[in-house]
């Protein structure tokens, strides 16, 4: 334990390769990373809002592959209040009832005309 005349030994930041520096947090008793690459968390081990974990990344670094990918939810097929978010693990956007695909960019079978103006996302026959 350090004090004003005797400092603690430095410890490496545990930033998972997504930060070049960290700041000591006295309350937590450890370093908190200054994350980059659209990562977040004390150790840069999660993705920022609007991004999800790259499934190709796995448990090891893949050269040239980003750790987090942008959600890129379709503005036409995604629920408006969830446009800039997606499931952090799968990247699945919150699709309107008649929209489909990870990014909500297509109409479900038997529906057509994907549009932001349509509450359900696509046109369809009303029964």
UniProtKB/TrEMBL annotation:
SUPFAM superfamilies named among the record's database cross-references: EGF/Laminin
Main location: secreted
Compartment list: Secreted
GO MF annotations, alphabetized: extracellular matrix structural constituent
Keywords attached to this entry: Disulfide bond, Glycoprotein, Laminin EGF-like domain, Repeat, Secreted, Signal
Domain of life of the organism encoding this protein: Eukaryota
Annotated protein name in UniProt: Laminin EGF-like domain-containing protein
Species annotation: Biomphalaria glabrata (Bloodfluke planorb)
Lineage, highest ranks first: Eukaryota, Metazoa, Spiralia, Lophotrochozoa, Mollusca
């Amino acid at each position: 334990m350090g004090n004003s005349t005797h400092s603690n030994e430095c410890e490496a930041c545990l930033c998972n390769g997504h930060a070049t520096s960290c700041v000591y947090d006295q309350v937590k008793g450890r370093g908190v990373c200054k994350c980059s690459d659209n990562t977040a968390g004390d150790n840069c081990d999660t993705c920022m809002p609007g991004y999800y974990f790259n499934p190709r990344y796995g448990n090891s670094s893949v050269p040239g592959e980003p750790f987090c990918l942008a959600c890129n939810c379709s503005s036409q097929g995604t629920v408006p209040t969830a446009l800039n978010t997606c499931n952090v693990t799968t990247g699945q956007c919150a699709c309107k009832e008649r929209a489909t695909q990870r990014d909500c960019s297509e109409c479900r079978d038997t529906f057509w005309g994907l549009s932001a103006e349509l509450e359900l996302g696509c046109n369809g026959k009303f029964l």
